Amino acid sequence: MDVVYARGRATATEVRAMLKSSPGQSAVRAMLRILEEKGFLRHEVQGVTYVFLPVHSKTTASRSAMRRLLDTFYDGSASGAMAALLDVSSVKLSAKERARLLQLIREAEGGER
To answer: ∠ CA(68), CA(85), CA(74), 5° rounding?
Structure first.
């Protein structure tokens, strides 16, 4: 998905070329087919080649994935997920990151921006 999002559209050959570990061409095509069956990708035919495109924007897809993650591992709790992220992070938050998180918390509480 990262390759298709980065390029906007990609063939199986292009996806394979962009991957760090180079799986076989059939493995890449199989994964693209699975992603299409799950509704993440669609394809257009150009000659004899399938060109894959994302069905949803990266933002929409990431929000959907986050919702599933929250529901699966944190019983829908954003605070539980945030606590886990802060707990496993080896990097301290910058002042800018802290300010952004505080802004998001205020917005979630119904406060001003």
So the answer is: 35
